[in-house]
């Protein structure tokens, strides 16, 4: 009888200990999650969806009326204003300056990060730009090595502290957030040069090259990754105009085959990120479903106060191909004048989104409901959240 009572006591104590342990774990988890990550810097890799001046400074100058809505002048962005990346940096939890393009030598400030994205870039060559992801990663590695050496040299000379005011602090490379928005041009270039089946067959290798790039950054000390999937390629007005065929459009007028390829790409990207979590134990990955946000905007554009999402504001592809920022007079008709209300358009120039659209998409992903794990950007550094 005594033995039985002792076993009951041990059982009850065991339950109590387990309960206290679970409660403490929950309290510890909540406490850690409540502390903002406060990333000191952002390093971005991508294409024109996040290019803040790289391609404009090197190959193709971004002309007016780009930038007219927010900056009041061309600001290196293929949009009338800010990009999703701009909203990330300016979010309540980060409050960082707009990222300077690594390739832009005028007025740059790299104290809180750098942007290696360039318009037309793809994960793997060939593509629309020579600055593929492999080149961008090489640029970052060189940037990190050179700025670290420079910082260490200049910090020894206390007479010139201002000389290091615009370069990153070496210790902050491992604390920074590394963001990706790339892959759209791999698919876009593929559809222009290959069959649909060949495009689909190429996706595993494209995703594999992205994983290699992340491995390289991890070796350089990167730990926190925020990775956008690719958007609905078939809903870009440019692709609808040049890629539509009989029976190949969905209910929103988008090219089905291109959107299906984008979804295949995104599924494989998400799977690869899950695999990377097992390979890089100290890394924290957030997969961001930008596709769903953008497609929701396109599907409900008119109810949200936008015009037909397949219309665009700047340039022309109807009969005469006029890029945004240029004009042409054909038979007395002027082509290329921008629309009067860019904020009513989802698409700015037929390929890139307007500031209003970018802001709407950012508002959808801000809280983390479209992320895996479902965390906001301010919680993207916590261990237990993304396990």
SSE blueprint and pairings:
Elements: H1 2-33, E1 42-46, H2 54-58, H3 84-89, E2 113-115, H4 133-155, E3 177-181, H5 184-193, H6 196-219, E4 224-228, H7 237-243, H8 256-279, E5 284-288, H9 290-299, E6 328-330, E7 333-335, H10 355-366, E8 371-372
Parallel strand pairs: 1-2, 1-3, 3-4, 4-5
Antiparallel strand pairs: 5-8, 6-7
Kindly describe this structure:
With 387 residues, the chain is of the alpha/beta class. The chain has a single domain (40-306, 354-386), classed as Rossmann fold. The chain contains 10 helices and 8 strands. The strands form 2 sheets. It has a 6-stranded mixed beta sheet with strand order 2-1-3-4-5-8, with helices on one face. A two-stranded antiparallel ribbon has the order 6-7. A hairpin with a 2-residue loop joins β6 (328-330) and β7 (333-335). α9 (290-299) crosses α10. The protein is globular, with a radius of gyration of 24 Å. Residues 1-26 form the signal peptide. Keywords: Glycoprotein, Hydrolase, Signal. It holds the Pfam family Lipase_GDSL.
Output the radius of gyration.
24 Å
Count all strands and give the number: 8
Which term fits the overall shape? globular
Please bin the fraction of helical residues: 25-40%
Distance between the termini: 46 Å
**CATH fold-level topology:** Rossmann fold
How many helices? The count is 10
Structural class: alpha/beta
Main pleated sheet: 6 strands, mixed
Strand content: 5-15%
Strand order of the largest sheet: 2-1-3-4-5-8
Using the coordinates above, name the CATH class.
Alpha Beta
Provide the succession of SSEs.
HEHHEHEHHEHHEHEEHE
Task: Give the integer mean of the pLDDT values.
Answer: 89
CATH architecture heading: 3-Layer(aba) Sandwich
Count of individual domains: 1
Low-confidence stretches: 10-33
